[in-house]
């Protein structure tokens, strides 16, 4: 594989295939060992079988090539012979055919099989913009500044999820009459080079950086695509792949006044990062940044290797994304589920059908599962669930099988909402330098019967929230202003419960209700990863204004728009809350209100979030929380290196009640229409549950329509346009309003 990366012809072709600018090229490979697919590019390859004939080939082809360059106005060429050092590179006038021919023949004499000699168009660095103090110095001293050139190297790495990311861009400035490399230039940042060249506008500098970044990333992407088509023996083994490249550019001035970055070579040796490391040692705040994605990818590969073949007992089928991850990470899943017709049975190592729906007999259900594991003689490495309803049951199975996971007590405390709050109020967790968990609790009042409402104002301040103890997705939640209204909604909710078996009501665990004091502020979610009680990672998302009085969500975004300090408050609160109820290992979803005095807990979900946020975290931070969950339950401590956010997600949550006209046939946002828009890449469409035409007053979310952009403002602008196009910007659900809280806060 290294030899292929060192092949200047092959890398030049792949650069051209990626749509990146490159110099016109004439190449003479000596007895090439691979074939080249030239395509429709300005690249000519003339194989040489013996060196004497090769000199004649050079003579005949060189004249044609130089004439073509001169017609294009290119006055200079570069001759490159094997070896990465600058003595192997020489500059010549395009008019000096004899000089070019002589240099190429000298290079041909030292070629070994598989190597090549190249002549290419010289790419001139854009000229310096006028700099007043330099002009004055030239006039005062009477000395003309020598022409300068600059080489730009972008270090581009493969990320843990197989994407491409430029980790550093470093430049080298030298005199234009000789080749530049890391050995004869001082490393300089791109901003430093452009400033020296007279660029002052920050927007223009960012535009050039973005252009170089995009070109380098698409080159590595194209190389990885080429690599994936090679046979195992051609790349050196099934686990071999290229994880880092150095792409060398020259920034040129175009006829229309724009700038372009021309890729002149690719490096894959230690020198790929040598100049970046020198630059980092002079800028200690950047130390290690150029290799951070590479190291994260290497660690991720190692942890994938450790996870391969592990056998996980999964309780409850969950969503389809779990089965995709099973294939990706090569783990074995034994699924225990009550549905004998579950489609997931074809995706798992083993499917065991077991009736486990009765939440009143969790001990019996757990014993049944444990006996099935022993009967089937299963060697289980870990046990988990991604279904909220099965969290308490899973904790009992983990305890019986002595697996890593939440204790039954912790699962019970987080499942029952009022018990979560009271556990925090009474928490004895006292970690130095961390706030007490009680700071994040709100007052609650249990209601097991209508009589409990009377006198509740003596225990809790109205307005308050009436909530099911075990509900989800805001089912059964109501804002109540006094005891009379509380009694009214309690009766209505009880009647609604009798008419539905929807899991979000939490009926499987009981129909108890409770009152909780209303916390004023914005709503946020935290996906938190802990191992042995230690915080490994956390990711914050924002929710837009909820629909009062039921508080159904309307919109969401990630990364959070909160300032970094407020985000740290939420992460600290999440850690203290899960610690306060007893969780020590796993991936959890914790919801808060950010009030003027800090975070206040809404609820703790004793399992990881669903596909929606898992996909966002994976895309934004290059971190797969499901992979981390697999590792933790198998007793492997994850080594996590979340990346800086690379994009901004923003979504509108649609419900039949608010969007029935657009969602129902013949509306303009039917599931089929939205799915087509998703396939075109216009939106990211996620269907939460099938749309029932007869139930258009249902407030629960049916789908999410999201967009991915570079910034909060761009994402909001794009999502507003999408909402208007597909008719989901309604009077009952005005898009401007539900996205109004998503404003990027200043960093400090």
TrEMBL record:
Pfam family, one: ATP-grasp_4
SUPFAM superfamilies the record matches: Glutathione synthetase ATP-binding domain-like
Keywords: ATP-binding, Nucleotide-binding
Protein's GO biological process: carnosine biosynthetic process
GO molecular function annotation: ATP binding; ATP hydrolysis activity; carnosine synthase activity; metal ion binding
tRNA-binding recorded as keyword: no
Ranges of residues in domain ATP-grasp: 431-634
Classification via InterPro entries: ATP-grasp (IPR011761), ATP_grasp_subdomain_1 (IPR013815), CARNS1 (IPR031046)
PANTHER family, per the entry: CARNOSINE SYNTHASE 1 (PTHR48066)
Protein name listed in UniProt: Carnosine synthase 1 isoform X4
Organism taxonomic ancestry: Eukaryota, Metazoa, Spiralia, Lophotrochozoa, Brachiopoda
Gene: LOC106176050
């Amino acid at each position: 594989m290294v030899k292929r990366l060192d092949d200047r012809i092959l890398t030049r072709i792949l650069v051209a295939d990626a749509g990146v600018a490159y110099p016109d090229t004439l190449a003479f490979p000596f007895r090439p060992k691979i074939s080249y697919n030239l395509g429709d590019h300005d690249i000519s390859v003339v194989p040489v079988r013996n060196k004497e004939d090769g000199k004649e080939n050079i003579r005949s082809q060189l004249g044609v090539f130089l004439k073509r360059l001169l017609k294009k106005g290119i006055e200079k060429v570069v001759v490159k012979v094997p070896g990465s050092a600058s003595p192997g590179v020489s500059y010549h006038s395009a008019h000096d055919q004899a000089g070019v021919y002589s240099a190429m023949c000298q290079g041909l004499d030292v070629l070994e099989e598989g190597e090549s000699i190249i002549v290419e168009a010289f790419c001139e660095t854009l000229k310096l913009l006028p700099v007043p103090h330099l002009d004055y110095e030239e006039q005062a001293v009477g000395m003309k500044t020598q022409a300068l050139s600059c080489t730009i190297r972008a270090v581009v790495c493969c990320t843990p999820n197989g994407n491409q990311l430029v980790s550093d861009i470093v430049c080298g400035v030298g005199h234009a009459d000789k080749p530049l490399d890391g050995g004869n230039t001082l490393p300089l940042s791109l901003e430093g080079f452009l400033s020296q060249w007279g660029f002052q506008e920050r927007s223009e500098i960012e535009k050039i950086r973005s252009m170089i970044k995009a070109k380098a990333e698409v080159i590595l992407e194209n190389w990885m695509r080429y690599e994936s088509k090679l046979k195992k023996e051609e790349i050196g083994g099934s686990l071999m792949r290229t994880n880092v490249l150095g792409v060398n550019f020259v920034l040129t001035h175009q006829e229309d006044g724009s700038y372009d970055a021309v890729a002149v070579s690719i490096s894959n040796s230690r020198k790929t990062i040598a100049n970046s490391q020198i630059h980092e040692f002079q800028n200690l705040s950047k130390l290690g940044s150029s290799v951070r994605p590479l190291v994260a990818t290497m660690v991720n590969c190692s942890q994938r290797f450790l996870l391969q073949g592990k056998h996980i007992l999964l309780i409850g089928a969950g969503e389809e994304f779990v089965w995709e991850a099973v294939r990706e990470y090569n783990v074995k899943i034994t699924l225990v589920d009550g549905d004998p017709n579950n489609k997931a049975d074809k995706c798992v190592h083993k499917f065991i059908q077991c009736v486990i729906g009765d939440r009143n007999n969790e001990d019996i259900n757990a014993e049944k599962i444990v006996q099935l594991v022993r009967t089937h003689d299963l060697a289980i490495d870990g046990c988990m669930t991604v279904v909220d309803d099965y969290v308490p049951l899973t904790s009992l199975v983990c305890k019986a099988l002595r697996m890593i996971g939440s204790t039954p007590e912790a699962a019970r405390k987080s499942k029952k909402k009022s018990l979560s709050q009271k556990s925090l109020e009474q928490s004895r967790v006292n970690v130095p330098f961390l706030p007490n968990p009680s700071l994040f609790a709100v007052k609650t009042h249990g209601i097991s019967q209508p009589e409990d409402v009377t006198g509740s104002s003596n225990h809790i301040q109205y307005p308050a929230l009436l909530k099911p103890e075990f509900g989800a997705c805001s089912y059964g939640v109501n804002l109540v202003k006094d005891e009379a209204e509380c009694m009214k909604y309690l009766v209505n909710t009880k009647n609604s419960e009798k008419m539905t078996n929807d899991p979000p009501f939490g009926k499987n665990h009981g129909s108890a209700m409770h009152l909780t004091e209303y916390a004023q502020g914005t709503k946020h979610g935290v996906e938190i990863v802990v191992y042995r009680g230690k915080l490994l990672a956390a990711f914050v998302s924002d929710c837009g204004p909820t629909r009062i009085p039921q508080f159904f969500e309307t919109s969401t975004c990630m990364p959070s728009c909160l300032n970094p300090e407020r985000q740290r408050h939420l992460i600290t609160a999440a850690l203290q809350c899960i610690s306060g109820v007893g969780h020590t290992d796993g991936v959890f979803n914790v919801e808060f209100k950010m009030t003027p005095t800090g975070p206040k807990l809404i609820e703790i979900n004793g399992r990881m979030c669903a596909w929606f946020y898992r996909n966002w975290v994976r895309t934004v931070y290059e971190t797969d929380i499901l992979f981390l969950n697999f590792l933790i339950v198998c007793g492997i401590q994850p080594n996590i290196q979340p990346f800086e956010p690379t994009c901004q997600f923003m979504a509108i949550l649609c419900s039949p009640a608010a969007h029935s006209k657009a969602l129902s046939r013949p509306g303009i946002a039917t599931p089929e229409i939205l799915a087509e828009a998703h396939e075109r890449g216009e939106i990211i469409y996620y269907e939460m549950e099938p749309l029932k035409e007869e139930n258009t007053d249902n407030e629960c979310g049916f789908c999410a329509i999201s967009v991915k952009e570079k910034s909060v403002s761009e994402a909001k602008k794009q999502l507003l346009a999408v909402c208007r196009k597909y008719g989901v910007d309604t009077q009952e659900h005005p898009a401007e309003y539900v996205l109004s809280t998503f404003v990027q806060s200043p960093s400090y």
